[in-house]
Amino acid sequence: MACRDIIVRVAGEGGEGVISVAGILTRSAANAAWKVFTFRSYPAEIKGGLAMMQVRISTDAVQSIGMEADILMAFNQEAMDTWGDRIAPNGVVLYDPKHCEIPEGFSHKAVPAPLHETSMTVTGGRLSKNIVALAALTSVLAIPPDKVKELIRSRFKRKGEDILEKNMKAFEAGLVLLDGVPEVAGYELEQPKAEAERKIIISGNQAVAMGALAAGCRYVAGYPITPATPILEFMMKYLPALGGDVVQAEDEIAAIASVLGASFAGKKAMTATSGPGLCLMSELIGMASMSELPLVIVDVQRSGPGTGMPTKTEQADLMYALHGTAGEAPRIVLAPTSIEDCFYQTVEAFNLAERYQMPVILLTDQAMAYRTQSVVIPDMTHLDILERDVAESGAVAGYDRYFDTKSGISPMTIPGMVDGMYIATGLEHDEHGAPNYTPENRVRSMAKRYRKLETLSKELDANGNGVYDPAAAAKIGIIGWGSTEGPIKEAIARAKEDGTRVAHMQPKVLMPLAKEKMMAFLKPLKKVLVVEENYTAQFSSYLKSNFKVEPIEVNKCTGLPFSGDEVFDALKKHL
Amino acid sequence: MACRDIIVRVAGEGGEGVISVAGILTRSAANAAWKVFTFRSYPAEIKGGLAMMQVRISTDAVQSIGMEADILMAFNQEAMDTWGDRIAPNGVVLYDPKHCEIPEGFSHKAVPAPLHETSMTVTGGRLSKNIVALAALTSVLAIPPDKVKELIRSRFKRKGEDILEKNMKAFEAGLVLLDGVPEVAGYELEQPKAEAERKIIISGNQAVAMGALAAGCRYVAGYPITPATPILEFMMKYLPALGGDVVQAEDEIAAIASVLGASFAGKKAMTATSGPGLCLMSELIGMASMSELPLVIVDVQRSGPGTGMPTKTEQADLMYALHGTAGEAPRIVLAPTSIEDCFYQTVEAFNLAERYQMPVILLTDQAMAYRTQSVVIPDMTHLDILERDVAESGAVAGYDRYFDTKSGISPMTIPGMVDGMYIATGLEHDEHGAPNYTPENRVRSMAKRYRKLETLSKELDANGNGVYDPAAAAKIGIIGWGSTEGPIKEAIARAKEDGTRVAHMQPKVLMPLAKEKMMAFLKPLKKVLVVEENYTAQFSSYLKSNFKVEPIEVNKCTGLPFSGDEVFDALKKHL
Amino acid sequence: MTQQTMLKPKDYKSEITPIWCPGCGDFGDLAAFTQAMAAMEVDPKDLVIVSGIGCSGRFSHFIKCYAYHTAHGRAIPTATGVKTANPDLHVFVVGGDGDGLSIGGGHLPHAARRNPDITYLLLDNGIYGLTKGQSSPTSPLGMVTRTTPFGMQDPPLDPVLMFLSYGFTFVARAFSSNVKQLAQLLTEAVAHKGFSIIQLISPCPTFNQVVTFDWMKAHVDPIPDDHDPSDLDAAFRLALDKERVNTGIFYRTEAPTMEEKMAFQREESAKREPGTVDEIFQEFLL
Amino acid sequence: MTQQTMLKPKDYKSEITPIWCPGCGDFGDLAAFTQAMAAMEVDPKDLVIVSGIGCSGRFSHFIKCYAYHTAHGRAIPTATGVKTANPDLHVFVVGGDGDGLSIGGGHLPHAARRNPDITYLLLDNGIYGLTKGQSSPTSPLGMVTRTTPFGMQDPPLDPVLMFLSYGFTFVARAFSSNVKQLAQLLTEAVAHKGFSIIQLISPCPTFNQVVTFDWMKAHVDPIPDDHDPSDLDAAFRLALDKERVNTGIFYRTEAPTMEEKMAFQREESAKREPGTVDEIFQEFLL
Ligand SMILES: Cc1ncc(C[n+]2csc(CCOP(=O)(O)OP(=O)(O)O)c2C)c(N)n1
Ligand SMILES: Cc1ncc(C[n+]2csc(CCOP(=O)(O)OP(=O)(O)O)c2C)c(N)n1
Ligand code: SF4
Ligand code: SF4
Ligand SMILES: [Mg+2]
Ligand SMILES: [Mg+2]
């Protein structure tokens, strides 16, 4: 019987090509219409050290990292020692006997795969051993070899005919390496249905960057920081060709300052960072909110606090996103829930920033930012792109920038417009922008700025952005935010198979909340689980301060994302 | 009949000496055992502009700013126009007819007080008109003139005999200026009981600085920022003589960094700032929490967000104090409730920082920081001062800095100790301090660091620091934090006069909470009001996320502190 | 210039009255600025002044322009964003010695490297004015301030020397009382293609009793006529000679502006990378 | 020195294995550092190394000492606090070019003014190593990095020139491959009373293919013997002459250290102000 869902881990010394093996495997499988979901683990060393990349390949939709590996390809002893005990009951270890021994009493199937030796024999060098491994996996999984060869060819063609040929030989040898070995039988993947839509394979970071470009972002400034750097690098490459500009700033303060300057001057502008950088942006988030400038900040969350674990994931910046600046500064907080959603919520972030003239913080996380997945190509012609509400030039004589309105939103001007001059200041100010500290002006201004959030909250009640699924009047529900959507959905699907309906809420706008919608969701439920990747149950406590609810808190703070199984196990206890 | 409680406002051009008038009045009254409570309003101009200082003088204890003035001394028209409509029903305006006219139909008593003219006549110049005003007030209030003269003498003696003599003449003339005017009768203050304790008159900022010195703080770094600058200035003057060091840093990041360096090297160290500066400290708060270094940060809250209203008060940094750094970083948050308490909570801040090895944020506010009040001299011999729990030198071979304990607290070493070497890092680390990103270490470390807060929370349940007064099983209660204690107590006292008991909770440790104690307080109450000087009801929402409670939210965000009357009015609606 | 009639200096004043103390040096700077704007016929609609926090930071409020009054120390990166977003604007930065050399000092070397076409007026009064008299990085040795009760212990920074070492393309010093020289200098600074930076000594009669107008008048001198502003070595020599307080242009050179470098990158990117988002998607096709 | 036996260079190595790439220039710095420590018989218990974030920032982990591995760019102010709190400690700062010249660059001029007795090793590889190859403020013009796909557009900063303009009292440059010269320079830096700052060029073979070991070897030269390090003008001239990469001491002078200035303030304060908290209360008596 063929498999419908398999987890493959490839581990070895960084630089030996383990990441390419898994990368090419992912791409080939996705090419042949399988669903894929990747995950990487980073070595402590700058170069070298133990690297691991995992691919989950499935005939059906796949939404989480999964738990234990069905197949571990271990290039060396460290790989075996570190990952050898995280194998599924029915799993198998393929190991290179040249660099790796199987410990006595090892409780899983283990099959020697002489990668080194094969590479030496076929190509005269050891450099192709990763291609041998790739081929071995290709045959074990029954992925069409042609798809794989195509990718190898395109990857190596720049390196010259000689190298390409050697690798093709290595591949052929690898394909038959494990022929007839009984332990590797049964891992053939069932063919998925062919897909109509054309897909791209991208990471969460790339999806965010593409979303920004699609939304019309034309200025980006940032300072390198793991795991947000790829967004800056992507922009450096692609944005100038679209007529935009990208600046590597001297630090995160300069980055956000210049983004605000560009926004003031009329550009849609963004910065991307992670925890330590977000901290440094804190003061200017207040400035932006006070002076009502559109601003998009992407926070790719990593494990904190402090420098923390830069290459590990976490959902622990929520409270900081909600409250992170001194005083009371309205802002919008969005949390995309999947790689595809990273694209769409980034577009939404720009729309909301321009519309509500305040900072929009987009919370992604390391795991979602770095893994890749295949995604249907967004249809640019059907994308809603909002432009800034600009006061009409000419009609603006006596213009008041902060004119108080019912929605709280005041039309802006941009430098260069006749008679649109005003002061953008972080001081409390009157409708024109001039400093004013009277109690009356203060109360009016605070109310005006916060009224914008009320306006948006009402809109969200009408067209809530997110999942609010009562599951046919289920009595138990799961609430999550951000990238936990996948594992939660998997857990709910498993419960359904077992005959239990579970409601699901995964709001994508975390500030403001769609209060009515959420109230309606919570009301019929006897029990709710709030699932998050942090220690202090931040979203749960945020919910408690907003609704009468006593959630069962399900938390993980290991630096790794939830798998569907983990969420299901937590759920099971309360069914 | 003599008065027991009077509010006097003195207003005029900054630089004309209006602040001295009110200052000397305050000091003289306090000297003669009256209770005093001051408040200042700052002009927008750097120099000059409308200045106002208010003194509330009372025969009994006085705890809040009060509402309307019983006496307004207006030096000029702007003073009249700005403050003329905030007069108590029975109040009187004294105005200098040279610079001020009373508008037609003005509904209060108004008495001309020819300050300018008198000064010119008696001294030949206008510079002494403030002394004339001071004298007039002295006689109207029936404050013993000798107390006042003493202070005038000590203030002017440095300026030379001539000037001193002129001012003494002006004073004598002012004493009789309003003799026999019927409108100013009835404002004589009733004599208070003489006091046994010796008192000092200090501001909240001075109380904090003195508390730090008393606690053994020997390193201070800061960057000037209104309204926290006076703490730095105080330290610059006094700390070096006590063998400590003070650094004006290049910015707030450098300030907190150097404070952490000093703490690492074994000194009790502190920085003081306000909103914008606190924002800049955010990253290193995480570093401190992660590397478990003792740290005291004073945040003198001002109106935000952004630059906001630097000279106005607010209690809106609570959420930022609780959550202000990316990731999850345990910290302690304290909120002193009065000027006297500023002293004691600062001592407590150092004790807790040293004991729990984490950042302690002390939240005061502009109003409390700048007003002055008379305070019983702290008894240094009865002060509990905690010293750092230092691992014993010699016994520390194989020392693990982050050794996991039941309380979460690990004994520290300090540089210079033999065999106590370790790494203080912002990276996640093992017990020695070496970077370690394994899930097991991560979970253990997070739990260890947070366990310290649980330890403290239990201690607080036992000896709760703050007010937890059930008021003989009252059914309604008021909850406040920080400087609202005074007005809340006044309101509760008024309710008591009217025959209603009102419970009162004013915790001084806001993170962690004394959970059991608070639960016990909340349980019998049918209604609770949460009173705070902010827009979004931060403490209320914090309570909601911790307890099943639905507070009635009483908020003020005008930039001015609550008066007892305002709190009482809010309370009345719910009695 | 879309305005029909020529604007006079006073037409550049906004409706907000300066909050500065009587006699503040900043008034001279304001006067020179409006004169220069009028002389160059700058259209207020195209004028952006980004200012930091301080007495000097209020400058932008008092001019008829698009004013951006940002956080303490962040005017330079803010202005960089403004200029990049719209190179047609006239962008100025105004701020104090604390704003520019203390909290904001880290941004200077990077402004020099990028060289956007911006003019920066660093209003140096050797003190923190707005916060009422603490020491600044240019407070003279020994000066007693609210934070140096025993006299300033650390030597002051030398802004011009620092600017030269950063590689700024236009470096000057001026004195607020010499309004005419300053107005002239401003027109040259604006005419300069690239970042022009001016240490503009503007005494604070309220809090600085050491570097006063009188002291300045006794020590100030124009840069000698024979100084060649294109000679970097000479500029350094002049800056190192601290006998007198020289005013004028120390150094001026040509280098690619940020706007030019951005345009170059757009061209390069356009040569190699897709020109639409749809085409970018194609690059990531399975 | 409380240790009974003399320590060898290797005795200064901690138990943590460097995570650096094979061939990283930082290894040379580590070797020279341990040699200098052994030569000066520094007791590890009195040794504090404060480091920032970067490959170079891990330096402190690999030495037997009290290590303080702070946030990115904040090593200098942290070390200032350490030294002030306990002047008896040997305090070093180690960090990268990004750490020290980009995000942390604003702290440098103020360290120069204060002049604490600290030695700063700025490990300059012209790249952001730890984040895997973005441009840094010392990346050469034209260099392609992950954030400069079209080549670096902005000219690099000249650290030595900047250090001189800030008024540092000991300014040097060195090259990681010349371990012997470096160890010697380190002993001189430590012997110097005041802040000693060293631009320590330490190539990154992984991400910087422009300023490589080979390039350095072809361009590096010791400072000519006839250079007088007490002559500031000469130091500037030497720094401005960019034909060769000179290594050695550019400038060295005497000035009061932060610790001395602090001691002076304690004395002055003690003369005028109360010496106990109780006495301070008395000053505020009614
Ligand atoms: C982050 C932050 N820290 C501190 C302050 C307080 N502050 C306002 S202005 C200023 C310094 C003013 O000095 P300077 O820049 O020289 O300007 P001047 O007032 O002398 O013109 C300071 C420290 C602030 N607004 N923000
Ligand atoms: C506030 C903050 N921003 C960004 C980062 C990410 N970061 C880590 S190291 C580094 C730069 C490293 O370059 P450099 O200082 O030159 O050190 P090197 O690795 O080259 O030795 C950056 C940007 C961070 N840790 N903290
Ligand atoms: S304090 Fe000084 S700088 Fe500020 S306005 Fe007054 S004179 Fe000018
Ligand atoms: S990346 Fe470069 S600097 Fe970092 S360890 Fe490797 S070689 Fe050294
Ligand atoms: Mg100044
Ligand atoms: Mg580097």
Task: Summarize this structure briefly.
Helices cover 37% and strands 20% of the residues of chain A. Chain A is built from 18 helices and 21 strands.
Keywords summarizing the entry:
heterotetramer, A: 575 residues, alpha/beta, seven-stranded mixed β-sheet, six-stranded mixed β-sheet, 37% helix, globular, C: 286 residues, eight-stranded mixed β-sheet, two-stranded antiparallel sheet, 35% helix, 17% strand, binds thiamine diphosphate, binds iron/sulfur cluster, binds magnesium ion
How would you describe this protein?
The complex is a heterotetramer, with two copies of chain A (575 residues) and two copies of chain C (286 residues). By secondary structure, chain A is α/β, with parallel strands linked by helices. In chain A, 37% of the residues lie in helices and 20% in strands. Chain A is built from 18 helices and 21 strands. In chain A, strands 9-8-10-11-13-12-19 form a seven-stranded mixed beta sheet, with helices on both faces. In chain A, helix 17 links the parallel strand 20 and strand 21 (552-555). In chain A, 62% of the residues are buried. Chain C has 286 residues and is an alpha/beta fold. Chain C has ten helices and ten strands. In chain C, strand 9, helix 8 and strand 10 form a beta-alpha-beta unit. Chains in contact: A-B, A-C, A-D, B-C, B-D, C-D. Chains A and B meet through helix 10, helix 11, helix 14 and helix 17 of A and helix 10, helix 11, helix 14 and helix 17 of B. The site of one iron/sulfur cluster has 11 residues of chain C, from loops.
